[in-house]
Amino acid sequence: MAQGRSAGRPKNTMRSPELAQSYIDAFAAARNFEELQDILARACVAAGFRYYALTQHADFKPGRSKLLRMHNYPAGYAFWFDARRLGKNDPVHRASQLRTSGFRWSEIAGLIDFTADDELVFAQARACGIGDGFTVPGNVTGELSGSISFAMGVGEVIDDDAIQFARLISTYAFDRARVLSGTRPFRQHAPITLRQRACLLWSSKGKTDEQTASIMGISRNTVLGHMRAVRDTYDSPSRLYVVVVALFEGTICFSDILDA
After folding, report:
1. Angle subtended by helix axes 17-29 and 160-181, to nearest 10
2. What is the DSSP string of 97-108?
């Protein structure tokens, strides 16, 4: 995805909730990645940061151009990062998989098993001019994990207003990027009925057709008919495949399956 739009650091910026809302509205109206990245670069400046990175956590290499990534990190750092295939192992990315809320980079050593290699990543970032930062996770079940980060220059301090502004806008930017990329085909199949969903859910919990029939108070043949209809809807003879796709599309969710 696109990368490299610049952002400078403003002076005396009023980072009000109203200003954050204006960027949230602008993200929602973005028609393509170029517009989204322009808005993200301006939001970075408005927040008081110097750098931004919206990315999925994967190794970026030829043939994986559909992955989400837009940033304005120095080219030297991006080249160093990609050459070492740090998309999955970067300490910021690993920490974001353990949090649902945003975190300062200064907290990372307490969130993960911090190694000498992790310190090398931050040392290289500092050598390229990237200082402290703040990251908001962008993790969605069924998709690659992701995040959106904002960073200062070396020696610059993140203030509380910048953190709050970043918290307010980040998830909206990430969600809009997902929609524009087609990362998740939100629904590829026709909706199933409530009875069909119930049969699918009991099947996903490991219940047999006989057990499902007893639980639902219907006949085994009725359960078989519902499950046949579900498989037809998802165009697959495999119940396992149907469960996976239904989870991906949000027809059922993990909490439904794991709930006793």
Report:
1. 10
2. TT-SS-EEGGGG
CA distances to 216, 224, 245 from 196, in Å: 11, 10, 15
Tokens of 160: 């509380």
- What residue has token string 């199933």? 192
Return the H-helix or E-strand segment holding 93: helix 91-96
Which residue from 81, 71, 85 is spatially nearest to 122, judged by alpha carbons? 81
User: Measured between alpha carbons, how far is 31 from 117 in angstroms, rounded to an integer?
Assistant: 39
71-109: per-residue pLDDT in tens?
A: 999 999 999 999 999 988 999 999 998 998 999 999 999
Tell me whether residue 73 is exposed, middle or buried, using C-beta atoms within 10 angstroms of its C-beta: 0 to 12, 13 to 18, 19 or more: buried
Letter string b/e over residues 89-128, b meaning 16 or more CB atoms within 10 A of that residue's CB:
ebbbbbbbeeeeebbebeebeebbeeeeebeebbebbeeb
d(CA 92, CA 153): 17
**Cβ atoms of residues 245 and 186 within 8 Å:** no
Contact 28, 60 (CB under 8 A): no
